[in-house]
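RECORD TYPE: protein structure
NAME: Maltodextrin-binding protein
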Amino acid sequence: MKNTLKVSLGFALMLLGLSSYGATLTVWEDLNKTNGIRDFADQFEKKYGVKVDIQGKDSANHVYDVADLISRGEKTPDIFLIVSDRVGDAMSKGILAPIENMEQEKSHYIETATELFKVKGKYYGVPRSIEALIVYYNKDVMPVPYETLNEYIEFTDKHKAQGIYGLISKVDNFYYSYGFFGAYGSYVFKQNSEGEFNPYNIGLDNDKAVKGVSVLADFAKKHVPMSVLGQEGWANIDEMFKSGKVGAIINGPWTLDGYASSGINYGVAPLPKLPDGTPMRPFFGVKSYAISSTSENKKLAEEFIKFINQTEFALKRYHRIAELPPIKELLSKEEITNDDYASAIAAQVEYADPMPTIPQMAHVWVPMEETLYSIIKNNEPIEAALDLGVMKIKQKIAEN
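PREDICTED:
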């Protein structure tokens, strides 16, 4: 019986063009998220006669850690996680293997998710989840969310005397405030028809950027407490939301677990429209499975990712870890379209810009944060402040 089983397993691998019977596939998942795929990995082990070693590690460090292992000649995981804005950096480090079956599998996913991992005609990531900023609202303070920024402002005007605000955000952080830039067509780096970013064409000081930041500055100065600014602002925003001093905040999917465990009676919604009716356009990102360039099990790794990203398994993963897979069939299912959280993420991604995937993006964050702080806190003229911020970005790019 055992011999028959081995033959059938070997035959299954042979059909896939694999010769990995008895191999161990090492997979890095996100910290505290291994439960999202563990039982699917068990099924994969039984089907192909291999072992899958799943390790939970902070995905923010996966690219750095894999690059470090390769530089020291040490064994890397076969599969790890990469966020779309790290693709350029990872490519420059040579740590990614092209994923050969994605040309056939790409139709399984929404196009905006797959294209961020396409470099010179090849794919280097398989989408696992999409993320964008959304509104979290405290139902005990604000029973329903609003569709427009003006409505949140009206809420603030009615309740400010009691120390309660309608909507707040980390307004001096570029990631959180890019929605005002993107709303009017500003951009970080211009994309060409192939979707490639040009680091020498920066659109953060053009007329559209000035218009967006003018709306942002007016909102921030008049309707957001200055305690949200600076490094201490992160903790202040969190405390205000949890203590009921604000009806709604703008934040990302990564805060969901914290709010859920805190006992807040919260709901979620897409970002509001600006005063002239223009939708905000924040960044959206995609977290994908990647395969190490030094993996000895590349074909097996491809098959494993395909296996766990089956719609049925991806749906179960979403319910376990609350990270939304950009799989077409999944997004059309009634249990997803009727899910407030999933619907908010999916709706916002429709009005969002891809975060640039080139390494030069690393030189944008600090200059733009300084720029926004100077405009909101120090009342620096918007045009001059944006010009200075872009000049700093260009200098950083030139130096590196």
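COMMENT: Residues 30 and 235 are 24 Å apart (CA to CA).
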